[in-house]
Amino acid sequence: MMLVALLASCGEQSKEKKTTHQDNIIESTPGAQTTGDTGLPSEVRQNEDDRPTPAAAVPKGAVIIATDIVTEVIIRPDPEGDPWEVEKVAGYRGDPLVEAVFSRIYEGTLTVFDYHSGEPLSPSDVKKIEGEFKNDRSKIGKLSFTEDWYYYPAENRIEKKAKSVTFGYELYNNLGKVYAYRAAFRADLQ
């Protein structure tokens, strides 16, 4: 912020210099066209792995602040453990999501993928995975979402777009406590 004020006070207006938009410092390239909404070059919006993101994919007025970021939520925390973990998910009501995903898999209208290899799983593959957990979907204790996050500077708000969800089954130690989660599969949400 100090740099911006210093440059502005010195009268530097070169396109090769950094420009600001809503207190964000953004690199500009010489001759690049910028959008009126975000101030970002319209043809160069990069993902974290340097793949260009088409400007059309970014909602109007938004700036991408994260792509393919993973948010994990333990939806069945130990009630005897950290009270904050329990409080964080007090509003969770995800059974319809879980049931709908499984229904669509078995109806053949949703293809899910192996979490590690990315290979498609057949309904019979998913049946085998469910069998490992005695077909008890209440043992799904963790959800892992892959999301894109957008910031709308004019509105000072953030929007998250979930692209996929991975279901994680609880694994228990010899004392009957959850010690980890096994990824069952990834379901794309788009």
Describe this structure in words.
- With 190 residues, this protein is of the alpha+beta class.
- The chain has two domains: 1-61, no CATH class; 68-188, no CATH class.
- It has four helices and eight strands.
- The strands form two sheets. The chain has a six-stranded antiparallel sheet. Strands 1-2 form a two-stranded antiparallel sheet.
- Strand 4 and strand 5 form a beta hairpin.
- The longest helix is centred in the middle third of the chain and has 13 residues, at 95-107.
Listing every helix as H and every strand as E from the N terminus to the C terminus, the arrangement reads: HEEEHHEEHEEE
Alpha-carbon Rg, integer: 22 Å
Q: What class, by secondary structure content?
A: alpha+beta
Q: What percent of the residues sit in helical stretches (DSSP H or I)? A: 10-25%
Mean pLDDT: 79
Q: Which parts are unreliable, with pLDDT below 50 for 5 consecutive residues or more?
A: 1-50
In short:
By secondary structure, this protein is an alpha+beta fold.
Topology:
Layout: H1 2-10, E1 19-21, E2 24-26, E3 63-74, H2 83-88, H3 95-107, E4 112-113, E5 120-121, H4 123-132, E6 140-152, E7 157-172, E8 178-188
Antiparallel strand pairs: 1-2, 3-6, 4-5, 4-8, 6-7, 7-8
Primary descriptors:
two-stranded antiparallel sheet; 2 domains; single chain; alpha+beta; 190 residues; disordered N terminus
